[in-house]
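Both lines are given unchanged directly below:

***
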Amino acid sequence: MAFELKEEGFRLKDIFVVVGIPEATYHYHVKKMGKEDLDTELKELITHLFKKFHERYGYKRITKELKKLGHSINHKKVYRIMRELGLKCVKFMRKSRKYNSYKGNVGKVAKNRLSRRFSTPIPLQKLVTYITEFKCLGEEKLYLNPIFDLYNGEVIAFEIRKRPTLDLVMEPLRETTEIIKNHATYRTTIHSDQGWHYQHNQWVRTLKENKVFQSMSRKATCADNAPIENFFGILKQEMYYGEELVSYDELKRRIEEYIDWYNNERSKTKLAGLSPVEYRTQSSQSAA
């Protein structure tokens, strides 16, 4: 508009005098229009990210994702926009249902080698495992047993079954020992509770054959298993609580999909905003 008026021989300052508005007011509205255009694009991007991460990210995680894309933005502005758009994580906060596999001393109880020293800069040095239970549609239940690397919070193996049989823990252990053989640079310790699965002769023998240290938490001390308990809490909060009960097969599919997403896409603050796999990959490239 200003360009066209100038072509006709009018100066912008003369127009301000005729229409009776201050020059500062004109520039304010021009700047505001440009800002509104930028906010529109930002709102579309925030909405896209919110949906991309399955409505599991709040404003802090969305802010980090925006910064990863090169946007310099304050988390307070992201909070304001998300509130304006009604984008809010509404997953229910409920206590995880726990599966108790303790049946007394049915084998040898190992000492607690970790003693809550959960951090490590070495991949595959400290692994933790545990069993959790889900209720399915009808009378069915689902049992999940993952093996979790404390180095980067990655689920390196897991098994899902309808019943908490010994194979529920042995299958991921066999897969894990193969990974250890090929990639571990330091002797591995696997930590668990005192459940009968982990006291079983087959579990203990497999660890010894593969030169893996066994560690167990103290009886009725959930803090000794805090990292894996925290993982179960996040998993259930983000994809289970607040949802209608589904069949065993459908829940199994959702958990498998979630674990893949958790490993490869879900960013973690302690990993500098990277996913577990991204962190492991970057670290190995830096070391090389």
